[in-house]
Design a protein that fits this description.
Main location: cytoplasm
GO molecular function: ribosome binding; rRNA binding; translation initiation factor activity
Helix content: under 10%
Number of domains: 1
Structural class: mainly beta
Keywords: Cytoplasm, Initiation factor, Protein biosynthesis, RNA-binding, rRNA-binding
Subunit structure: Component of the 30S ribosomal translation pre-initiation complex which assembles on the 30S ribosome in the order IF-2 and IF-3, IF-1 and N-formylmethionyl-tRNA(fMet); mRNA recruitment can occur at any time during PIC assembly.
Order of helices and strands: EEEHEEH
Radius of gyration: 17 Å
Distance between the termini: 54 Å
Largest sheet: 5 strands, mixed, barrel
InterPro entries: NA-bd_OB-fold, RNA-binding_domain_S1_IF1, S1_domain, TIF_IF1
């Protein structure tokens, strides 16, 4: 099967399962089990329950999928404050 034959859907993560798997409610109403794609693991992109995601599925098995993208959400940034993780990265407050 070629990569061109994969179908993409958007959905909402409803539950985190063991072994880096997630239960995803698709916008079409179906519920599937999905795993994290390799690039998301490589770049350490964390997915939590309630996140909007894009899922890639094979047309032959519509019960399983692969998370390929986590959509940004407005609630992740704090208005009026420093960006999340600014203190951990060092930045201008690093001692020399």
């Amino acid at each position: 099967m070629a990569k061109e034959e994969l179908i993409q859907f958007e959905g909402l993560v409803t539950e985190i399962l063991p072994d880096a798997r997630y239960r995803v409610q698709l916008d079409t109403g179906h519920e599937i089990v999905a795993y994290t794609a390799g690039k998301m693991k490589k770049n350490r992109i964390k997915t939590l329950a309630g996140d909007r995601v894009t899922v890639e599925m094979s047309p032959y098995d519509l019960e399983k999928g692969r998370l390929i993208f986590r959509h940004k959400d407005e609630r992740t940034s704090t208005p009026g404050g420093p960006p999340r993780g600014a203190a951990q990265r060092g930045g201008q407050f690093r001692r020399r």
